[in-house]
Design goal:
Blueprint (H helix, E strand, L loop, with lengths): L4 E5 L4 H13 L3 E5 L5 H7 L7 E3 L5 E3 L1 H11 L10 H28 L1 H15 L5 H16 L12 H18 L13 H15 L1 H10 L1 H9 L12 H32 L5 E5 L2 E5 L3 H15 L5 H10 L8
Parallel strand pairs: 1-2
Antiparallel strand pairs: 1-3, 3-4, 5-6
Length: 332
């Protein structure tokens, strides 16, 4: 294990490709290991949870959960940094990383399993990945099993008859805004990838590989498409930009998507968990969102709050967060 890290994951996992992209950008020696029957003994040896990616360090320690993985590895490999030096943009990058992981996953999971064409494509790819040596008959049977299981799980991300139109209209909105933002820069925060790029990109990359959203991105968002390709092997192409330079096209995303949609949902989800509710509803914009609470998100919210608490002078940041509707609840 002394030769480098081992990243055990899957091409169809947004969190796995997120971590792989990070390792590639940092130039950290690593081996990409597909999670399948062949790697299962190693996975069981080092994993504490049944989730990917699993990163095995050169010292033989297993790390899971993409955000803590990157946070920990960044401490040991600080250059080139994925964090802007400006405190305002540094935290907003972390906020967008959280937004991508938690809200972006709703778009990805919904679109992947909402329509026949995406279900067939995704289930077939998963089946081939997990059992590459299967016969065609075995592959077809495994594909049907995967499809039935995954379609039945869309409720987990909040996809249902009520929320499906909201998810799709919200995705189209951010696709348009993100394309405008990326029209004049290679990455979200300027000339090099930031923490926020990795979190948001993992979801967009997965959606781009699926038929429906692949068509939406390829047919109507050329700058997003370039970014999706660029982030497979990201590189330093310049400096991070200041908030003043980023704000004209990034603030609308913060306000309309992160604040009005994600952050409002975040606080409602937390409240529902505290009250031990089986289901909760919250008004996002002018639509009612209904779903079962997501337990993991309470943990990731705690990590984001800890990052906010570390900032010594929050005055400029708080003005921006308040205007975007993202300040409430950060001090909890």
């Amino acid at each position: 294990m002394a030769d480098g890290y081992r990243v055990i994951g899957a091409e169809m996992s947004p969190y796995s490709v997120k971590v792989r992209s990070y390792f590639r950008y940092k130039g950290i020696p690593h081996q990409w290991v597909l999670r399948n029957a062949a790697s299962q003994p190693e996975f069981e040896k080092y994993a504490k949870m049944p989730i990917i990616p699993l990163v095995v360090t050169p010292g033989g320690t297993g790390i899971q959960d993409s955000t803590p993985i990157i946070d920990l590895v960044e401490k040991h490999h600080p250059e080139p940094s994925i964090h802007p030096g400006e405190p305002v943009t540094r935290f907003i990058s972390a906020l967008i990383e959280e937004f991508g992981d938690e809200w972006g996953n709703k778009w990805m999971f919904h679109y992947r399993w909402a329509r026949d064409v995406d279900q067939i494509s995704s289930a077939g790819r998963i089946a081939r990945m997990r059992a590459p040596g299967a016969s065609e008959q075995e592959h077809d049977a495994f594909t049907a099993q995967v499809r039935a299981r995954m379609v039945d799980r869309v409720w987990f991300v909040g996809s249902n008859a009520t929320t499906a139109p909201q998810i799709e209209s919200g995705f189209q909105e951010i696709l348009d805004m993100l394309d405008a933002h990326l029209a004049t820069r290679p990455y979200l925060f300027g000339g090099r990838p930031a923490f926020g790029d990795f979190g948001l990109w993992g979801q967009f990359y997965e959606m781009w590989t699926d038929p429906t959203v692949g068509g939406l991105i390829g047919g109507g968002a050329p700058h997003v498409l370039d970014w999706v390709h660029r982030m497979l092997w990201p590189r330093n192409e310049g400096a991070f930009e200041t908030w003043t330079a980023l704000a004209p096209t990034l603030m609308p995303i913060l306000t309309k998507q992160v604040g009005r949609q994600f952050w409002t949902w975040t606080l409602a989800n937390e409240k529902a968990l505290m009250e031990a509710k089986d289901e909760f509803s919250v008004t996002l914009g002018d639509k009612v969102w209904v779903q079962k609470p997501q337990k993991y998100h309470a943990r990731s919210l705690g990590m984001l709050r800890a990052k906010y608490a570390e900032i010594a002078d929050k005055r400029d940041l708080d003005l921006i967060l308040a205007a975007a509707g993202c300040l409430a609840g950060l001090r909890a």
